[in-house]
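Why do we bother with a discrete structure alphabet at all? Because it lets us treat a fold like text: something you can write down, compare, and reason about line by line. To make this less abstract, here is a complete entry for Nucleotide-binding protein. Read it the way you would read a sentence in a foreign language you are learning: slowly, and without expecting to understand everything at once.
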Amino acid sequence: MLLRTLKTIEAESRKVFIVHGRDEAMRLAVQGLLHQVGLDDVVLSEALNKGDTIIEKFDREARACGYAIVLCSPDDVGGLKAAGKATPALAPRARQNVILELGYFVALLDRRHVFVLMAGSVEMPSDFSGVVYEGYDKAGAWKRRLADELSAAGFYIDPAVRKKL
């Protein structure tokens, strides 16, 4: 049943969900790239509520997408509280909603349809170690890699546009 659902999502959707934290410049850069290659983006805060709770809205919008781009920017800090120490050493982390939504999309779409774009040094959950991600740089080297991954996932990217990235 899940496999059939995945195939339906992939076949019918040219929408890409952007999971993001507080780095608006990063989100806008990714949205710009998606528009440049002719794909529709979904950003939860821009979607209509339609009377739904936030989790219902998220689920509805997520299921309409065939791919997710997860932007991990160092918006929060956290750390493991060690026994006997009052304050843990804190490390930069992505916001908790970003990590929750990352897990959701890995389960919904499969890792092959989730692209993680990492800004700076961001601590990721240990269960996610070993999964490949792309580094975000303001020069835009990540753009070509993202276009290539979208193409490999079955999205048509015009070769002339891709060459310019």
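What the structure line is telling us, in plain words: The helical segments are 2-12, 24-36, 54-63, 96-109, 142-152, 159-164. Strands lie at 15-19, 40-42, 67-72, 76-78, 91-93, 114-118, 134-135.
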